[in-house]
Amino acid sequence: LGATTTPPVVTEAPSTAPSPLCVVPKPEWLGDDYCDGGPYNTLECDFDRGDCDQFNADYPDCNVPDPQLVGDGYCDDKFRDVPVYNVPECGFDGGDCANSDTPLGPME
Length: 108
Known about the structure:
This protein has about 110 residues and is mostly loops. About 15% of the residues lie in helices and about 5% in strands. It has 3 helices and 2 strands, in the order H-H-E-E-H. Strands 1-2 form a two-stranded antiparallel sheet. The longest helix has 6 residues, at about 55-60. It is elongated and about 40 Å long.
């Protein structure tokens, strides 16, 4: 009988996603102390591995592409011509926009 060879063990790098249902373009952004919006701020991704917990507590119904823009001192009125920041659910951009007619720019 010939010698038995053992096939090499192939291992994949562990995923940083908290669940196999968490599918995001950049898994390394999960849990990086920055609240990323969109698919990162979901139950499947453990709300960006906890990075969005405070944002979600402050604005539970606010779904924006970049949560860091809410309450940053500038009135971020629209995203791709659609009002998403300056809406009641987001506290009118975290208070940065006085109302829907406020132009984009720093609040005085």
